[in-house]
Every structure is written in structure tokens, then in C-alpha cells.
Amino acid sequence: MSNFLRLQSSRLASRCYSTQQPVKASIKLVAELRKLTEVSLSKAREALSATNNDLDAALKWLERDLVTTGAKKAAKVQGRSTTQGLISVSMLSSGVGVKTGSGYGGVRAAMIELNCETDFVGRNELFGRLAADIAHTAAFISDATGSSAALQPCSPELLQDAPLLSRADPGAAPTGTVAAAIRDAIAKLGENITLRRAASVVENSPQQADLGLRLSSYVHGTIEDPSQGRIGSLALLALKFKKLPELIASEAFREDLGRLERGLARQITGFETYSIKGEGEEALYNQPFMMFGHEFSDISVRDALTIWSRKKGQTSQVLTEEGVAVLDFAKWTVGEQIAEDTSPAA
């Protein structure tokens, strides 16, 4: 009897003190999981080990873990200074003559500033993709306001409550809000990330055959994506020609117009430009049009627009003898001090 009791006691002790060895994560699945989620190597191993190398279960495990660790990380880094980051522009519709060269379309675009702590994270692919998606979301959900100022500020707080839309896959269903995506990025990148500001321009097609709207943008200090960098501008232009439908249908005209638009956006970005008209060299129309080049580099933007317009067609008195006019613009630099009213004075 005593031998039997000793045997049972030995078996019980064995069950109490033995521990199950954790499942070793599959190297192949670790690589696949990191490709799908961009989590760290250690986190991918932990997820697969906890789910017995079940990829689908590991993805769900990571989703739950991101919510927990992301919230903790966000709380930990909250308040840290964020002076680096990106200006990101999303242009969904650039206006009259888009794609087909005929017909008339409205304009729809947005520009945002997403900040982080270091330039290293600001150059990270995940951070750049997040900035692009937020800009795309702002452009998509904004409405026409009917205000005299075409470029309207978007509330960062309201934007963070919106579902995040993918720029790379616009048809994909959103998986979370902008705020949740920022929280997840904080967990993955380890830095404080803040949405500092956003602005959009949404204008419907003018109800005049001789009048069209166009958008132009330029971003300086880009890395890989030409729509993101350290300094960005977004400009709204008006075209008024008696034969605008014929002109905009011409590929040659559209190419020339594209060069003019890019020159204007580069001028705004590259120079100290704070208004469209007015006194001094800080007014766009007073500046030598250096960014357009050719015969226009030694004359003012105002005169260059007049000459260009006269070459292309009959000008309009409505636009003060200009067939092309700049109606509004915004120019942002990462980390700059934000004035109360950043809209350019006419």
C-alpha cells in the first residue's frame, strides 16, 4: 500500500512541476506574418508561438495585442515633442480636362501634416503610408462649403474619428478609424505621432462652358513618394477662355497648362510666398517667374500669366485680363509655427 501511495504521489508531483514547452515559431510563417503586418521579429514570433503556428489566429492575436500595447504606448509617449514628419497631398480630381481632355469636372484634394519625433521615423515607409491614407481620407470625405476661401481647414479631431481609407486600394473596406491607425503606428514605430493639421478644397464644376477650375500641387524634400515631403503647396486656378472646350480637348494645350501649373506650385513652394496679390516680393504675382523658366524667368508671375493666356486664346475681363488666375493657395512646412489665419490674402 505504501508503495502505491508513493507512486501516486510521484505522478502528481510530476504533473504539478512539469511545464509545457512553448511552440517554436516557424521561420517561414514569421517572415509571412511580418510582411502582412510589419510587426517586429520578436512580436511575430510571440504571436505564432501563442497560436501554435496558425497564421490566421496569429493575425487576430496581433490585432488584439495592438489595441492593448498601442494604447499603453500612446499613453507613455503622449506629450513628447513632435516636430518632424511629412506634408502629404492627395488630389482626387484636378479639374477641367482630366483624363479625357473633354468635359468639365470639379476639383477635390486635401493636404495634411503628420508629425513624429524624429526624422528617422518620418522617413519610414509605414509612416509615409499612414500620412498618404489620412490625406486621401480627408480629400474623400470633405464637402464643398461655398465659402469665398476655397481651401478650408479640416478639424484634426473630427478627421481622427473618420474611417481610414486606403490610398493604394480605394475600394477596400476600412478596418478602423484614423485615430486607431495612428495608435497602431505608435505601437509599431515607438514614437509619438500626431495629426497636426489638415485642409481640403472641394469645388463643383462651374456652370459655364468658358470657365474651368484646376488644381496644382508641388512637394519639396520628397523621399520616394512625390506627394510627400517637408514643404508642400496646393493651389486652385481658374481658366476662362471663350474657346475653352476646344482648348482643353487639345493634348498640346493640356501639356502646356500642366507645365504652367507645376511652375506656379513650385514658385509658391520655393519662394517666400504669403499672398497672391499685394505689395512686396512675398506676393506671388510680384515675383519673377523663376520656376517656369524660358522667356518668363525675368518677368513677374502676373505678366507671365497674361502673356501665356494671350498666346492661348482670348482673355477675360472677369479675371482682370488674365485667362489663367490663381484663386487660392496653401503652403505648409513641417514644424512651422501656425498663424491663426494661413489663407493667402488676395
SSE topology sketch:
Blueprint: H1 2-17, H2 27-37, H3 41-50, H4 55-77, E1 84-94, E2 107-116, H5 119-122, H6 125-141, E3 151-154, H7 156-160, H8 178-189, E4 194-203, E5 211-220, E6 228-229, E7 231-240, H9 244-248, H10 251-270, H11 301-312, E8 324-333
- β-strand percent reads 15-25%
Question: Oligomeric form of this entry?
Answer: single chain
**Main beta sheet, described?**
5 strands, antiparallel
Question: What are the low-pLDDT stretches, counting only 5+ consecutive residues below 50?
Answer: 12-19, 316-320
Query: How would you sum up the global shape?
Result: elongated
Provide an overview of this structure.
Its main location: mitochondrion. Belongs to the EF-Ts family. Associates with the EF-Tu.GDP complex and induces the exchange of GDP to GTP. It remains bound to the aminoacyl-tRNA.EF-Tu.GTP complex up to the GTP hydrolysis stage on the ribosome. The chain is of the alpha+beta class and 346 residues long. The protein has helices at 2-17, 27-37, 41-50, 55-77, 119-122, 125-141, 156-160, 178-189, 244-248, 251-270, 301-312, and strands spanning 84-94, 107-116, 151-154, 194-203, 211-220, 228-229, 231-240, 324-333. The strands form two sheets. A five-stranded antiparallel sheet has the order 3-4-2-1-6. A three-stranded antiparallel sheet has the order 5-7-8. The longest helix is centred in the N-terminal third of the chain and has 23 residues, at 55-77. The model is unreliable at 12-19 and 316-320 (pLDDT under 50).
